[in-house]
Model the fold of this input.
Amino acid sequence: MLNDLDPIWVDTRDGVEAAAAASKAAGWLALDTEADSLHSYFHKVCLIQLTANGGNFVIDPLALEPGDLAPLWELVEDPSVPVLMHGSDYDIRVLDRDYDTRIRGLVDTQIMAQILGEEKTGLAALMEKEGGVLLDKRHQRADWGLRPLTESQVVYAAADTAFLERLAVKLRERLQTLGRWDWAEEEFRKLEGVRYREPELNPLAFERVKGLRALRGGARDRAYTLFHWREEEAQRLDVPPFKVLGNTTLLELSDQPPTTPAELGKVRGIGPRFIRRWGGDVLLNLAKPSHAPEWTRSPRPPELSAKINRRMKRLAVVRDEIATELGLEPGLVCAKSCALAVASREPRCSSADDLMDSGLTGWRLDLLGSRFITALADE
Done:
């Protein structure tokens, strides 16, 4: 079945307009992206897959000017055009980051599966169960920023959208039968509001290197110095830090520092190319390391009062009972953070308005509201 996809490679403005025209004719489109997050420091969208009206388009944004994609963005920002996606949270964020694009009319098949209580909500598992389609997983870790892509890579990418309409139709029918389609639509609208946030430089990232806490004194200083050198090199070359120097090698160098290129070459993970490229920098950093700051202690969350703990337990009982009745994950019915907000409110929640102020809204309020209030009233 995958061999019949016949994907259309798009690397021109005319090609984008053809894909957009197919979507307009269909009145919907299926959308996905591929990024190079495993292969670069500064991630970027490398492919945009679109299926509509019988056409499977694989768009190469690296070959296009940002303005060339305008016909596509006009469609996805039109709330009257359903945009079918699967596990769209990441895609929504990167499209916002790279193109300032806002998805409207979202229909996410992973959310639909979660609200149906499916145990496996990955696209491959759902397509096999609902459509008898076996998706190829060979290229999950491919570097989508490389060109040219192989034919099998292009087919793999196209398959992520080729069957979404079929899947969405089946899942929607099941949701409507259960009276849960409105729940899914509510979740879609929330997800449309997701935006990309630039990650802040974490000063504690160094301390998260596995095995670091076994190092002391000068060894820890050397590890600290190599860690920051590695980050700078990774940024300069736009590659993941592990492609400059792996954590295991970093720790070994720090614990038993070589002093010559010959000694450096004996360290596991260090080859002639590394020595030619970075040997001098590494030996200098090992010989003259910066002083590592003292260990920080992550702040412990504040202790909950006995009253709040009692409330949390009562809310958990209600949530778990309802989740079991519906065949849903308890965390989907009510996240722990929401339950904590409800339990922490003073005076206690005694009305629907109180619960909404604490973040319990929509279908979750309908399910849990009266039973939460009853549980909290029995103090």
Notes: The chain has three domains: 2-192, 205-287, 306-377. The mean pLDDT is 95. The two ends are 60 Å apart (CA to CA).
